[in-house]
């Protein structure tokens, strides 16, 4: 799935299969903030991979989705124009 993230500030996705989330787009403003909610469906165990448009830091160095049925992970991103990538700045899991 490729998100044209310049067009919104938040998105909710119910996972019905494994997902690679690519966050690309043109005209994204430096510092653009994006919230992504990823909810497991009634089957659960869906695997999420973040695409190459995402950078990790030392505090949030990776992401592995909660695989529990009907649980939601919330990811916070900030766009870096200089790096042409979203920085993953927060992860809240298992809601």
Structural features, described:
With 95 residues, the protein is mainly β. The chain contains no helices and 8 strands. It has one domain (2-92). The strands form 2 sheets. It has a 5-stranded mixed β-sheet with strand order 2-4-7-8-6, with no helix packed on it. A 3-stranded parallel β-sheet has the order 1-3-5, with no helix packed on it. The chain is globular, with a radius of gyration of 13 Å.
Element layout with pairings:
Blueprint: E1 2-4, E2 10-15, E3 19-24, E4 33-40, E5 48-50, E6 54-55, E7 72-80, E8 85-92
Parallel strand pairs: 1-3, 2-4, 3-5, 6-8
Antiparallel strand pairs: 4-7, 7-8
Number of domains: 1
The total count of strands amounts to 8
Distance between the termini: 23 Å
- Describe the strand arrangement of the main beta sheet, using strand numbers: 2-4-7-8-6
> Helix fraction?
under 10%
Alpha carbon gyration radius = 13 Å
Summarize this structure as a short list of keywords or feature phrases:
mainly beta; 47% strand
Write a short abstract of this structure:
With 95 residues, this protein is mainly β. The protein has no helices and eight strands.
